[in-house]
Specification:
CATH topology of the largest domain in chain A: Rossmann fold
Radius of gyration of chain B: 21 Å
CATH class of chain B: Mainly Alpha
Strand content of chain A: 25-35%
CATH topology of chain B: ABC transporter involved in vitamin B12 uptake, BtuC
Strand order of the largest sheet of chain A: 6-9-10-3-11-12
Mean pLDDT of chain A: 87
Number of helices of chain B: 15
CATH architecture of chain B: Orthogonal Bundle
Structural class of chain A: alpha/beta
Low-confidence stretches of chain A: none
Shape of chain A: globular
CATH superfamily of the largest domain in chain A: P-loop containing nucleotide triphosphate hydrolases
Number of helices of chain A: 17
Oligomer: heterodimer
Shape of chain B: globular
Strand order of the largest sheet of chain B: 1-2
Number of strands of chain B: 2
Number of domains of chain B: 1
Largest sheet of chain A: 6 strands, mixed
Largest sheet of chain B: 2 strands, antiparallel
Helix content of chain B: over 70%
Number of domains of chain A: 3
CATH class of the largest domain in chain A: Alpha Beta
Helix content of chain A: 25-40%
Chain lengths: 503, 323
């Protein structure tokens, strides 16, 4: 009998132009949590998709209980005891919990001895048992659309458990959970461990990894770097292995000196009573103002309100001493305000258009001849300037932006806004989904901008980033600003204290 | 083992080629060559005789003008089904005004088209209705308007306007429309804004593009072009019946899809889609006529070609976002 429940070895997988996996191995022990780590693009998801039968390996072997197997598709993987909870959950919101869990494999019974129908009673009874196993107490007949994200995730896990899985893959399971919900998830994982299930845990959050996992495998650029016992590792050690070089400083040194107030918001209130209300704050020239808070604190909504994307009922915005009116993004842009949005793919890049089109869209009026005709040379110069200044890696200015990596897309978007020479930059989660190396480059750009005298508002859900980058931190809770913390005095604890001041 | 793997991969490779980007980009050209060859062989070269060629070209002037406007709408990721009824209503206006003054008739046609486009754009933008739904409603509505004025008798046009039925005039108008539209699409802020909306409306709006205005104006412009096409139509046919412009919307869609434009639209389109598409449609159309097929059979064949091209060119990732 093998020590491992599942072994993958020598796995290679190529896509046109890239070798996504190059002789990678992964060995899972029963009853252990195995963390899989690496920067974006390191090949974690590709490896999991090979295990789950979504991709076919070019080379390599999978063994279950020491016996070589081939996994042809996800159905086959489920039959062999492998289940996967995807990062993006895909439930059917209008149907019940039970129907979602047993989708495609409803328990059947025969009416009058010959007509097959769905056995609803058995389905809901089984669902109730499964929910008990994942410590959830809601009604199996509740519509999935009425559940919170974490509850939906529990349903997905219940679905995986119902297949009697021996290997469970969790791909970034905590990316949209609050800390309480993370605790609940960890309890479920402990239960599964006790039942001898091997859990593959993919996450970027170091503290979680160090807490929950027993073993850690690190990948870089499609290659296998190594496997360690979790208790031998520290955050620094993991990052060093992931990046492939020593990272002495996570954040660049800052030389900005905040000056006079350039931007002031008074009593700003949303038309939606549950969103931001009575917000007051000031922003100085050359200052980096961090904005912290829990998910749902309405930070993004506030910034979108200031940028004219959402409507407000009352409140004033003062810019360089004068009151300004903003009712659509164009008004804000014309005033010299820029906003890098949180959802890069949905509201940032224009995927099928070129790098040149994407970088020039907000400042296009600057490159027009006679007010109408786009001067291609001026646009090309803009692209080349930015490519040099920010080290953007793109084959050419005509390349479709969606084919660049996340970090490079983000740099193009930063370039889009800088082309307008704004004085106030609102950055909403500027490093979300960007790998560690590119993160540092973005931080450097932010620090340089502040040094040049630009004022920066930075929303971030990463505590260390917020503390490491901000001159001041504004903390929000449930639509209200609950407090300000000086960057130097900021700790996780005092930020969290403000972030949890519910009324 | 090795052999077996190869066999497994074979069908998927063919499939990935058929759905791949390279093939989609080449499809209009391949289709164009194939259709000309097939039609040339089947008609034993008759389709390329100068006389037939002239007839062939005479069918494509006004559809090309209309297709140019619809091209902009489809670049937005929207769709328009009102071309036929707009052409009908605008043709009635052109004919009626042609007794007073020709320039007034042209202007009247363009304004009528623009007004219908404005109605489409208004409901699409202000009520956030999908253009698909809006234009199906307005298509029905204006088809009714067209029928109302033509039930008793056909609406005749003046002799003066019928005397303008000359190839050079129609060629000039069509080429001018194509050139100006190409220039706007390729080199100006207007084209850029339209492509930006087609590629990602939210991103475009957040970047300062006035997306609602762009969408509204695209519908107005497309309507105005259909109004101009109505003038070219009146010049050719001389009197307007209830069926004027009947099924033009389908013809335009077939044309653009033959030209390689995915039915879902979006910023991946190329301006060449319009030109290649109209030529292909004309060859197909006259080829089928020369071969002596009944109109019903022609429609059947065109329908099959349409379906095949839609399936081959469609952008599956964009399926959920027809606006």
């Amino acid at each position: 009998m093998s020590e491992y429940v599942l072994e993958m070895s020598g796995v290679c997988k190529s896509f046109p132009g890239v070798k996504a996996l190059d002789h990678v191995q992964l060995k899972l022990k029963p009853g252990k949590v195995h963390a899989l780590m690496g920067e974006n693009g390191a090949g974690k998801s590709t490896l999991m998709k090979c295990m789950f039968g979504i991709y076919k390996m070019d080379e390599g072997q999978i063994k279950i209980d020491g016996q070589p197997v081939t996994i042809s598709d996800p159905m086959d993987a489920l039959h062999k005891g492998i289940a996967m909870v995807h990062q993006e959950l895909q439930p059917i919101p209008a149907r019940t919990v039970g129907e979602n869990i047993f989708l495609g494999r409803y328990p059947m019974k025969k009416v009058l001895g010959c007509i097959p129908v769905v056995d609803h009673k058995k389905m809901y009874d089984d669902t109730a048992d499964l929910l008990k196993r994942v410590r959830m107490s809601f009604d199996p007949k509740q519509k999935v659309g009425e559940l919170s994200v974490s509850q939906m995730q529990s349903v997905e896990i219940a679905k995986a458990v119902s297949a009697n899985c021996r290997v469970l893959i969790l791909d970034e399971p905590t990316s949209s959970l609050t800390s309480n919900e993370v605790e609940a998830l960890f309890r479920i994982i402990e239960d599964l461990k006790a039942e001898n299930v091997a859990v593959v845990y993919i996450s970027h959050k170091m503290d979680e990894i160090l807490r929950i996992s027993d073993e850690v495998t690190i990948m870089r650029d499609g290659r296998y770097i190594g496997t360690w016992e979790a208790n031998e590792l520290t955050t620094e050690k993991i990052i060093t292995q992931m990046v492939g070089r020593e990272l002495t400083n996570l954040y660049p040194p800052r030389e900005n000196v905040p000056g006079e107030v350039v931007f002031e918001v008074k009593d700003f209130t949303s038309i939606n009573p549950r969103s931001f209300r009575n917000v007051n704050f000031q922003l100085r020239k050359g200052e980096i103002l961090g904005v912290g808070g829990l998910v749902g604190a309405q930070r993004t909504e506030l910034m979108e309100g200031l940028f004219g994307i959402r409507s407000h009922t009352s409140g004033q915005i003062f810019y360089k001493g004068k009151e300004i009116k903003i009712s659509r993004p164009k008004d804000a842009i014309d005033q010299g305000i820029a906003m890098l949005t949180e959802d890069r793919r949905g509201s940032g890049i224009m995927g099928v258009l070129s790098v040149a089109d994407n970088i020039s869209i907000s400042s296009l009026n600057r490159y027009l001849d006679h007010g109408y005709f786009i001067n291609g040379k001026k646009v090309e110069k803009l692209v080349q300037d930015n490519v040099q200044k920010m080290n953007i890696k793109t084959p050419s200015s005509k390349t479709q932006i969606k084919s660049l990596s996340g970090g490079n897309q983000q740099k193009v978007l930063v370039g889009r806004w800088l082309a307008n020479d704004p004085d106030v930059l609102i950055l909403d989660e500027p490093t979300r989904g960007i790998d560690v190396g590119a993160k540092y480059e973005i931080y450097t750009i932010i620090a340089d901008l502040a040094k040049e005298g630009k004022s920066i508002i930075m929303i971030s859900s990463e505590m260390s980033e917020l503390i490491g980058m901000s001159d001041r931190i504004m903390v929000m809770c449930d639509g209200r600003v609950t407090g300000f913390v000086n960057g130097r005095d900021a700790t996780q604890e005092n930020i969290m204290a403000y972030a949890t001041q519910f009324e | 083992m090795e052999k077996q793997r190869k066999q497994e991969q074979q069908p998927s490779r063919v499939r990935s080629f058929l759905t791949g980007d390279t093939f989609k980009a080449l499809l209009p050209l391949i289709g164009f060559v194939v259709i000309i060859l097939v039609m040339n062989i089947m008609t034993e070269g008759r389709i390329l005789q100068p006389k037939k060629l002239r007839l062939l070209l005479s069918q494509i002037y006004y559809p090309t003008i209309v297709a140019t406007g619809v091209f902009f709408i489809m670049t937005l990721g929207s769709i328009d089904f009102t071309e036929g009824s707009t052409l009908g209503v605008a043709s009635i206006v052109v004919s009626a005004l042609s007794f007073t003054s020709i320039p007034l008739a042209i202007l009247g046609g363009i304004l009528t088209g623009a007004a219908i486009g404005a109605i489409n754009g208004f409901f699409h933008v202000k009520f956030k209705l999908q253009s698909f739904i809006v234009t199906i409603c307005t298509m029905y509505l204006f088809r009714g308007v067209c029928a109302y004025f033509t039930t008793e008798t056909a609406v005749p046009a003046s002799k003066a306007i019928r005397a303008m039925d000359q190839d050079w005039l129609k060629i000039t108008i069509t080429l001018a429309v194509l050139l100006i539209a190409w220039f706007l699409f390729r080199f100006t802020r207007i084209g850029n804004d339209v492509k930006a909306v087609g590629s990602g409306e939210t991103a475009a709006r957040f970047s300062g593009v006035r997306t609602d205005r762009v969408k509204f104006l695209a519908f107005v412009a497309a309507g105005a072009l259909t109004g101009l096409a109505a003038f070219v139509n009146v010049v050719k046919v001389g009197s307007i019946t209830a069926t004027a412009g009947n099924q033009l919307e389908t013809q335009i869609l077939i044309t653009l899809v033959l030209g390689g434009l995915p039915i879902t639209g979006g910023a991946k389109v190329r301006f060449s889609n319009v030109v290649v598409g109209t030529l292909m449609y004309a060859v197909l159309n006259s080829g089928l006529s020369i071969l002596g097929y009944e109109p019903q059979v022609q429609q059947l064949i065109k329908g099959i070609v349409f379906l095949v091209f839609v399936a081959l060119t469609i952008d599956r990732k964009a399926l959920k976002v027809i606006k």
